[in-house]
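Re: your question from the hallway

Yes, I did run it. Sequences:
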Amino acid sequence: MPYKELKMYQTGTYAVGNRLLETDERTVQSRTDRSNSLTSGHRACQGCGEALGARYVLDAAMRASRGELIAANATGCLEVFSTPFPESSWQLPWIHSLFGNAPAVATGVAAALKAKGRDDIRVIGQGGDGGTVDIGLACLSGMFERNDDVLYVCYDNEAYMNTGVQRSGATPPAARTTTTKPVGAEPGNVFGQGKNAPLIAMAHEIPYVATATVAELHDLEDKVERAMEIRGARYLHVFVPCPLGWGAAAADTIKIARLAKESGVFPVFEAVEGRVVGVSKIRSQVPVEDYLRPQRRFAHLFGEQPDTEVIERLQAHADRNIARFGLLDDGPTEGKGLMEMLAESEHGPQ
Amino acid sequence: MLRQIEGSRAVGDAVARCRPEVICAYPISPQTHIVEHLSDLVRTGDLERCEYVLAESEFGAMSVAIGASAAGGRAYTATASQGLLYMAEALFNAAGLGLPIVMTVANRAIGAPINIWNDHSDSMSLRDSGWIQLYAETNQEAVDLHVQAFRLAEAVSLPVMVCMDGFILTHAVERIDSPAQEQVDAFLPRFEPRQMLNPDEPLTIGAMVGPEAFFEVKYLAHAKQMQALDLIPEIASEFERGFGRASGGLIRGYRTDDAETIIVALGSIMGTIEEVIDELREEGHSVGALAIKSFRPFPLDEVRLALGAAKRVVVLEKALAVGIGGIVSANVRMALSGIELDGHTVVAGLGGRPITGRSLRSLLLEALDGGLKALTFLDMDAELVDRELRRAGSGAPPGPHAESMLREIGIVAASSH
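Structure:
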C-alpha cells in the first residue's frame, strides 16, 4: 500500500484543492453528504488542530463504514470541548469512560459487537498524546497484542493541553510546558526522554500503523480509509498543533504542521506488520529553526543570544528521522523493519 | 443438577448459564479458577456467542466490561484484593454510567503486607463505589447469587458484585445443585439496555457534568440502590419459587426472634456461627445470629427490626478501618440510631486467620458476661504486638515489623544479630 501522493497544488500555498480533482478523489469533508460526526457548536479553541483532525478522521471513518461506527474517547481536550452536559457535538454513538482506558473500552465495544454477530459495525478509539502514550499505554499495548478489531487514533499536540499544558511523554525536547519551563540548567523539556508511539505500535507488528498531519488532509482521510479496509488492531498518529499550548497564531495551525513534516521533525509514513510500506517524502526541506520560530514554546531558544547548541541538537533529531525513514528523495524506504530503522540512527544509512 | 464440585467451577458454570456475551479476565488468586473454567467453556463452544478477552490488567478488564456493557452486551469479570483496587477508578465509572456489569469478588486481604488469604478488606474498601454488594454464605448461595445478580443489575441498571470468601468458598469442593439452562432462561430475560451505543440511534455517554447538574446525576445512583432494597427480596422470592431453595435477600436471621444477644456477620463464617449459637442455646443462653447479605444497599430498616429488641449486638467483621475500627459495625450502628443497646465490634480473621468455633464461643460467653470491650481483635496476639511496638519505640535499629515478630514467636529461625 504505497503512499498516494497527490501532485496537484495551487501554487504558492501547497494546498491541494478539491475543485481540480475528480469527484471520487475529493475529500469527504468537501461533500455535502458528509456525516458531520463532530458537528459545530463545540468549544475548541480557534485554530485547534485536534478538532480539525478529528472532524476529518471521523467523517472519513463513517464513510468507510457506511455510518456504522462507534467511538470511544479518552478524557482530554476533545472529550471536554465536545460534551459539556447537556450538550454534545457528537452525531455518532460515542462513549467517554476514563483517561487511561479508551483503548480497552474500544476493545470491549468491539467484543460485544462480535458476540452479537455485528461485524458490520466498526469501532474507533481516540485520545490525545497523554491519554495514549502515558496513562493509556498499557491498555493500548493490550489492544495491540490481542489484535482487537479497533482503529485507535492519537491526536498528538505534544502535552497535556486540557489541564493547562503540562509535559507528556510526547513532548519534544526543549519545548516549554508548565512543568518544563525555560528555567534552570536545561530550559524546557529535557533531551533523552519521550516515547515514539508510532514505533511502539510498529513493534507490536499490528496490521496497520500510520502517521499523518493536519497539513495534508487528503492524506489523512486516505489513511483512515485504508485503515478501515483492514480488520484487527490499527494505529493512526495524527500531528495536531495546538495554538494555545504551543504559543502559535491560530491561523498558523496548518502551516506549522507542514513545517513539522518538511523539516523532518515529524515523519509521515505507513507501516504494516512492523515494516514501513510507504513514506511521504519531504517536498522542500526547511531547517528546523523555521518550524521552531513561530511557536512561543520554543521562544527561549531565540532572542538576543540564541541557544544554538539546542537548536543544533533539534536539527540532528530531524536529520536522524530523515535518515531513518528516507524522507528525502534519495533514500530507499519500503520494506524496512523497525530494527533496521533504529540501527540507522547510529551509523547512517546502511 | 447435583454435583460434587469446586466452588469456583460451580460459579463459572452458573455464569455461563446466564449467557454472558463478553467475559474479560485477568488472573488473581483466589478467583483464577473461575476465569480458567469460563475460558474452557468458551473454547469448547459450551458457551456460545461469547467473546473472552484476556485483559492486560484488572483496570483493563473492567474497562473492557464497560465498553461491552455500553454496547449492549451482557458483561462479566472476576477479581479480588489488589485487582479490585487496581480497577477502582473503573468501578466508580461503571456505577456512575449505570452499566449492569456483574463481577465476582473472591474476597481476599489487601496488602501491604501482601497476603492471598480471605478477609473482606477488598470489597469493604470499595463499598461506596456505587456497586451493589451481595455476600454469599455458601457455595450454593454464591452460585445462586450470580443468577440473581444479572437479573438485579439489569433491572436497576447498576453493576453488582457477588462477594464470596476466597479459598474458603472458592476452593471448597462440596455438593452443589447447579441451575439448568432452561431454569436460568426462564428466570433471566435477554439484556435490554436502558441505553446503548447504537449507530441507528446515536447518543453521547459520559459527558462532562458541571456543578449545575452533577449532584442530581450522582444522586440517581443512590436512588437506584434504594430501589434495589425492594427488588432484592422480590428477586430472591422469585428465585425460590423457580429454583426451589432460599438464596439471597437482604438479611437472614438465625434464632434471632427472642435473642438478647445477637452476633452479626457476613459470608461463610455464618456456618461456624450457627453451630456455636446452637451450642449456646442448648446451654440456655439467649443468643442469635444475623447474616447481612446485601451490604450495599445497606438494609437499614431490616437490620433495625432484626436487632432493635436485643440487649447486646456483637458485630464480627473481617475488615478493619485503620484509624477507627469497625466498618460493618459503623453501618449497623447507623441502623440502630436512637436505640440504646450494648454494641461491640470484633475484628477477626484478617489475612485468613482462622475463626474457630471455640474462639467464637468464648467471645460470646464473654459478651454475655458483660466483659467484652467496645473493640476487640479476635485471636490476635496482642502481647506480641505490644512487645513489637515497645521494640520499635525503644531506639533499637528499625527493621521489618513482620520479620521481628515472626522471629519472636519462633517461626523465623535465622537471625542476623
